[in-house]
Amino acid sequence: SGAELVIAICPDKQTIYPEYLPPSKRPAPGVLSRLDQFWAMAATLTDVPLVDLRAPLRDAKPKELLYYPRDTHWTYRAAWLAYEAAARALAAQDPSRAPLPAEQVEWYLGPPRVGDLAALMGLPAFGGDLNWLPNTRKLAELDRPKRGKLVLVGDSFSEPLTLFFGPDFAEVKRFNAVVRASVDSALTPALLAQERPDVVVVESVERYW
User: Fold this and answer.
1) What is the DSSP letter of 129?
2) pTM, whole model, 2 decimals?
3) Nearest to 35 by CA among 10, 58, 17
4) What is the DSSP secondary-structure string of 59-113?
5) pLDDT tens digits for 87-144?
6) How far apart are CA 139 and CA 20, in angstroms?
7) N or C: which end of the chain has fewer CB within 10 A?
8) What b/e readout covers 33-45, taking b as 16+ CB neighbours within 10 angstroms?
């Protein structure tokens, strides 16, 4: 449809932090996950704008909390790294675009997050995990040229990405891919015809594969 496209694959929490699994649940040496198999296949592709988030997350792991301890989801810090990788992939297609500089993002400590794992285990809904959040008001006030429309299609991991893409687009619309359904249930020719985006970013988390 003429839109630029970026496809970002979000690793599962245990892919980045396998050391916290019980020994019996850790992958055996030499066993490839579906994600590993996919990226081995993708190494042969030259014309698909795929973004592998495993490396930036593993590199940041010693100094950042990337996934909430009592939640399956990544933190906003991890989502920022995903944004950077996706924005660089977009800039490779359109050099007039550049990722938002990290120093322009102001962070603050928000209310503790009570995550989905805590709820699934029946733990009390108090306490929670450290939750660093971007200052959305400061992001909205950044003096950057806003142009074009971005359509973001993904699961729940894609929600934080809208905050970071916001300063560079006149409009950002997110469409939620139905849980456990393929992304193409949401990203359809009809949606593209209706929204007429300049950029499409697709996010998909490993566990739905």
Assistant:
1) B
2) 0.92
3) 10
4) HHTTTS--B-TTSSSBPHHHHHHHHHHHHHHHHHH-TT--PPPGGG--EEE-SPB
5) 999 999 999 999 999 999 999 999 998 888 888 888 887 778 999 999 999 999 999 9
6) 34
7) N
8) eebeebeeeeeee
